[in-house]
């Protein structure tokens, strides 16, 4: 079973609350197990360019079932996945995308966040994951 709209909305609400708590504006996307967009929010004033990045982070995390920051480590020059960011119509290989698992440990979707530093993006994405995992 993939992520439901209700779960995606819970993740977005928690991520948005974390963004407000750390005083940043974010784009937050949630995709299902098939990497299809389920829910998206662009906070008032968040960077327009980050809307696409947040969705690509979510899809990247689901395509490879790992945090985008981990994929980034593997895609550095000389790494086993060097240049992977050019696959699948463009991947994002820096932090801010995280898989979402259900209580049985199965991946049901992913969240992607963009709009601040990669550290803040990751923190906000983690809040979304934690709200439903």
Automatic annotation (TrEMBL):
The lineage of its organism: Bacteria, Pseudomonadati, Bacteroidota, Cytophagia, Cytophagales. Signal peptide: none annotated. Pfam families: HbpS-like. Coiled coil: none annotated. It comes from the Bacteria. This is Heme-binding protein. SUPFAM superfamilies: GlcG-like.
């Amino acid at each position: 079973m993939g992520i439901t709209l209700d779960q995606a909305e819970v993740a977005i609400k928690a991520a948005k609350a974390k963004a407000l708590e750390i005083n940043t504006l974010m784009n937050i996307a949630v995709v299902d197990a098939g990497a299809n967009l389920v829910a998206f929010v662009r906070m008032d004033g968040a960077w327009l360019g980050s809307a696409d990045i947040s969705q690509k982070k979510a899809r990247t995390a689901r395509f490879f079932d790992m945090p985008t920051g981990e994929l980034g480590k593997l895609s550095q020059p000389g790494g086993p996945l060097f240049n992977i960011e050019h696959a699948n119509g463009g991947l994002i290989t820096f932090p801010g995308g995280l898989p979402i698992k259900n209580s049985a440990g199965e991946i049901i979707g992913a969240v992607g966040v963009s709009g601040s530093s990669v550290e803040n993006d990751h923190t906000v994405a983690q809040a979304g994951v934690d709200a439903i995992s």
